[in-house]
TrEMBL record:
It comes from Artemisia annua (Sweet wormwood). Keywords: NADP, Oxidoreductase. SUPFAM superfamilies: NAD(P)-binding Rossmann-fold domains (SSF51735). The lineage of its organism: Eukaryota, Viridiplantae, Streptophyta, Embryophyta, Tracheophyta. Belongs to the short-chain dehydrogenases/reductases (SDR) family. The keyword Oxidoreductase applies. It comes from the Eukaryota. The keyword Hydrolase does not apply. This is Glucose/ribitol dehydrogenase. GO terms for molecular function: oxidoreductase activity. GO terms for cellular component: membrane.
Length: 367
């Protein structure tokens, strides 16, 4: 009898994460839906069970809390012995959106660096939000991944998929009529930017590292990082840094961390423009650049684990204030496809939805 596969999805209580859980469960995989908020996570699982999916369970997870990550890893080891699929979906935007004005201006399509000087009083990206964004989107993802890699390595076909969102592939023509709509659209304080990085990068990294030992017990381990075309290296105006991040043979985790800390320092000191950083939704973009680079390093480091990052598309979710172009159901298709890749599938690549795309492009198209 074939052994059942087990998947962890971070940020699974709503939006793309919820749809990823649903679509994986439909294939018969045992799904552990995680979220920071316990009541919302339990509610999400009950919703899936009421639709006939009994193979989904909930476990609380704060990807910025090492003890929370450790509890998840212990739970998986105790109840499943191994982990086959890790999908890093949890993320924050690092901005405060003023809903009415944001929608009136067309959503994220208005937030380009070309318009940055016109966005005075349009967006406020304080340091605290930027730092928070990076801690979640990069460090959080990293922490979860590192924690679960030992369990993933027990799988026969381990998979890691890092998921993201749009944020940077947003070039549109600026018009005077459009500019008037940009007043008071979003705030981007430093505190949220810092939190964004702590969640999107450091949190992702921490979870990943914690779960890698369990992933290594799988026969087909997979790690999927939900990423973004906002992490396209074209958003960096520092050519030397761009080259460093492209040179995957020489790049190190220490250097990625140095780049993230350099960004936070410049963000806090209002030196983003002079040092070549993105000027709008900046912490989010840098967090996804870091996650993309980390994904490639993981693929190089763990040859037995298929590790990829996926941009799901511009999806109608709370993060986009319901201004996206595609549904969460369609947005989940790319991450799920990456999680179910065959053992000879690609590793260390970036998927734009379901198609392999470059980490550095010369033009952007919002899709």
């Amino acid at each position: 009898m074939e052994e059942k596969r087990c998947a962890v999805v971070t940020g699974g209580n709503k939006g793309i994460g919820f749809e990823i859980c649903r679509q994986l469960a439909l294939t018969g995989i045992e799904v552990i839906l995680t979220s920071r908020n316990e009541s919302r996570g339990v509610e999400a699982v009950e919703k899936l069970k009421s639709s006939g999916l009994s193979n989904v369970i909930f476990h609380q997870l704060d990807i910025t809390d090492s003890s929370s990550i450790a509890r998840l890893a212990k739970f998986i080891e105790t109840h499943f012995r191994k982990l086959d699929i890790l999908i890093n979906n949890a993320a924050e935007s690092g901005i405060i959106i003023h809903e009415e004005e944001f929608r009136a201006g067309g959503g994220f399509v208005q937030l380009t660096d070309e318009r940055a000087e016109l966005l005075t009083n349009v967006i406020d990206e304080p340091y605290e939000l930027g730092e928070q964004c990076l801690h979640i989107n990069y460090y959080g993802t990293k922490a979860v991944t590192e924690a679960l890699i030992p369990i993933l390595q027990l799988s026969k076909s381990p998979r890691i998929v890092n998921v993201s969102s749009t944020g940077g592939d947003l070039i549109v023509q600026l018009t005077d009529e459009r500019a008037e709509l940009l007043t008071n659209v979003i705030d981007e304080p430093y505190e949220l930017g810092e939190q964004c990085l702590h969640i999107n990068y450091y949190g992702t990294k921490a979870v990943t590292e914690a779960l890698i030992p369990i992933l290594q017990l799988s026969k087909s381990p997979r790690i999927v990082n939900v990423s973004s075309t906002g992490g396209d290296l074209i958003v960096l105006n520092d050519e030397k840094m761009r080259h460093e991040l492209q040179d995957i043979e020489k790049l190190t985790e220490e250097r990625i961390d140095e780049i993230v800390q350099s960004f936070l320092k410049d963000f806090k000191n209002a030196k983003l423009k002079e040092n070549g950083w993105p000027l709008t939704i900046s912490a989010y973009k840098v967090s996804k650049i870091a996650v993309n680079a980390y994904t490639r390093l993981l693929a190089r480091r763990f040859k037995s684990i298929i590790v990829n990052c996926v941009h799901p598309g511009y999806v109608v979710t709370d993060m986009t204030s319901q201004t996206g172009y595609i549904t969460a159901e369609d947005g989940a298709k790319g991450p799920v496809m990456a999680a179910l890749l065959p053992d000879d599938g690609p590793s260390g690549v970036f998927f734009n939805k379901t198609n392999i795309a470059p980490f550095f492009t010369t033009d952007w198209v919002l899709n």
